[in-house]
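SAMPLE LOG
Freezer: B-3
Tube label: C17
Construct: single chain, 186 aa
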Amino acid sequence: MRRPWLLGLLLALVTVGIVAALVDSEVSGTGAENVGESGPERVTQTRPPADEAPDPSPERDCKATQSNPGGTNNYIPDAPERASLGSGFVITGLVRSAGGCRPLEGVRIQVWLATETGGEQDNRASVRSGSDGRYRIETDPTVPQFGEPNIHVGYDDDEYREVFIRRVVDLDDERAVVNLTLARGG
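STRUCTURE (predicted):
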């Protein structure tokens, strides 16, 4: 004797399970928050916002940036220093020390992303932070890789602990901000 209702019940339970898993899951599945912004690039202020203002007192410490899963995807060490990887999308950020929250000058930050001109392995560069601890690089706009447009920002020199970040953006974003707070030691 056939039981078609049993098959229907099984399909309904599977569907409810899938919907529940999707509702409870992260959008990117890697802990990568969306950091993109659309519209024209904002002019850098002479003083950073209060939540980013470095405090010169040595008593104050900032929480070090932690690497997130997927941050090292397609990473290749020693990306060449370049001023630009194209135009149409800007990645900026503040690099500071976890000890004392001071801006760090001359720190080599690596950036890589997929664009219409090539994959993450082809679109990579190193840039250095300025005297105010800020870095900036213009690139071609990012395209989806594994289902979502994303950018990677990393630090892997010897003075501080390495950090690898993967952040998600939207296709119409023209700018992303990825700040790094670096801690000493291994």
